[in-house]
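Input chain follows. Return structure tokens only.
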Amino acid sequence: MSQSSPPPAVRFVEVPAECDGQRIDNFLIRTLKGVPKSLVYRILRTGEVRVNKGRARPEHRVAAGDSVRLPPIRVAAEDDAPAMPARGLLERLEAAILYEDARLLVLDKPSGIAVHAGSGIDAGVIEGLRVLRPEVFLELAHRLDRDTSGVLVLAKTPETLRAIHDALNTRSTDKRYLALVRGAWRGGEHVVDAPLRKGMIRGGERMVEVAPDGKPALSRFRPLRRHADCTLVEVTIETGRTHQIRVHAAHLGHPLAGDDKYGDPAFNRTLAALGLRRLFLHAQLLSLPLGGRPLTLEAPLCPELARVLDTLAARG
């Protein structure tokens, strides 16, 4: 008769040096291999995870040497490891690398690829790149929504990860996006300083909304090219909230083209007839103060978005 494995027990793990500065949720996802992300966030929310005997929110960053208490959870065996990312995903990620050195790997992330696995997605950017660079420390330095394309930075050392997080937290970066929005833009730059709250449910999906008790969020919209029924705008953000640009644009009365969550269905159909099959939101530029001088990273518009703009220009 085969012996059953012993039940899981509470255990304590020490944060290694290579995980210094990592978010606790990401540390748990890597440590508790095979455990669903929903469970990771639940044990954080309920306080079952402790860092140095204290409760920790998902955004808490661990330090080398921290003691992390893990509740009794059964983790996957070696042969239950997640499946290898599809070859097509790996090829797209390799082709999308914009820049790489000893500190950074910068991707021109394609629209439609999530930055990490979860919510029915087996593998995203981070899982794929760890397969392509198995001997390298790799962590997402920031995030982009699944449907957003453009500059995405991954750190190749813990020191670089901390430096980027410090720059983001002190708002000493320059982040610029290109977006196509509904309607003829009136005037010049519009600043939206409106707090955002997550958690509203619609059709089984989590939504983000402007709410007085939300987290601070500030976006600046500057018109670049005006058409009869839509406008190309440059957006700079001083915060990085989930769906921030999409929600702020809709709050202005200028929802993004191709936005099936916060947008205008009739406007989306009009743009689909011109060849738009995705959200028109592209992270065009990110400038980081690394090594004492700014490092500016840029990603050109993908051909699909460029063709839509050409079609609009030809219409006059």
